[in-house]
């Protein structure tokens, strides 16, 4: 095994972090009922150092998930409700003129809600493209530019954005460049019967379970560093490249892709699969990812990085159908 920068055996360090992460997952599951897949995919996103787009109808605990993550992982979290009149300064902050007692004037920067470690961008597609672009810079660079000056964001910094798939009136579709910045698109569905029953009983009484802190921000950063150190076999690398390149019309041998895909996943999709597969291995207590990790993570990582052609819409072909064909190429 390769030693970590701290001189600790990589395997022991991974085992210690896995213990904490499993405990964190259990704490979150006590509050978020029937969404085990969503919890796992969100944790994988954070362990990989990325951002997530949560898509689901109202009332599926998306907001509560973000609040619980902040508490359990020891992250300073904030929430911004995106609306059509939201301006970039409402997110990033702005400079104000202040006058001292001696009459001298100077500008002081007042930080916006983006200066946190876990930002919930609620209904992100309701904001104007200008506001979306301001958040894009923060997501990509980890800093914001105000009046020609750069201001670094806290570390770690993650955006968990939500979209309501039912209401499209008055929304601004996210540009492809910004969608690609999200490591995963996590589809949040309805819970199973027993999970919804437990939720109903647990949340309508006089008391509710509160998730307890398990990690600190520094430990999450250490976990993100460790994820990048986990070894990846050639078979996994080949599976990632085969999967991603099979989704592009220019390099695909799959008839459905050539007919129905307008544009496919770029190199950032392969990077996301590599990091997410490592993070999933760490979450499961394994030292190295497998091809199965790539297959399981392909839908949430690829579905927002592909656009279908008009013929696909006419034929009723969905993105998940195309991804299923891609998976067949590496399964």
Summarize the topology:
Blueprint: H1 10-29, H2 36-47, E1 52-55, H3 62-73, E2 77-81, H4 88-92, E3 93-99, E4 105-111, E5 118-122, H5 129-141, E6 143-146, E7 149-152, E8 158-163, H6 176-179, E9 184-187, H7 193-203, H8 217-229, H9 234-246, H10 255-260, E10 261-263, H11 267-283, H12 291-302, E11 307-308, H13 310-315, H14 319-328
Parallel strand pairs: 1-8, 1-9, 2-5, 5-8
Antiparallel strand pairs: 3-4, 6-7, 10-11
InterPro entries: ATPase_AAA-3, CbbQ/NirQ/NorQ/GpvN, ChlI/MoxR_AAA_lid, P-loop_NTPase
Domain ATPase AAA-3: 51-184
Protein name: MoxR family ATPase
Overview of the structural elements:
With 331 residues, the chain is an alpha/beta fold. It folds into two domains: 1-84 and 116-215, Rossmann fold (3-Layer(aba) Sandwich); 230-331, Helicase, Ruva Protein, domain 3 (Orthogonal Bundle). Helix content is 47%, strand content 15%. The chain has 14 helices and eleven strands. It has helices at 10-29, 36-47, 62-73, 88-92, 129-141, 176-179, 193-203, 217-229, 234-246, 255-260, 267-283, 291-302, 310-315, 319-328; strands at residues 52-55, 77-81, 93-99, 105-111, 118-122, 143-146, 149-152, 158-163, 184-187, 261-263, 307-308. The chain has a five-stranded parallel beta sheet with strand order 2-5-8-1-9. A hairpin with a 2-residue loop joins strand 6 and strand 7. Helix 9 (234-246) packs across helix 11, helix 9 (234-246) runs parallel beside helix 12 (291-302) and helix 11 crosses helix 12. It is globular and about 75 Å long. The two termini are 29 Å apart. Residues 1-7 have low confidence and may be disordered. Residues 51-184 form the ATPase AAA-3 domain. It comes from Magnetospirillum sulfuroxidans. InterPro entries: ATPase_AAA-3 (IPR011703), CbbQ/NirQ/NorQ/GpvN (IPR050764), ChlI/MoxR_AAA_lid (IPR041628), P-loop_NTPase (IPR027417). This is MoxR family ATPase. Residues 257-324 form the ChlI/MoxR AAA lid domain.
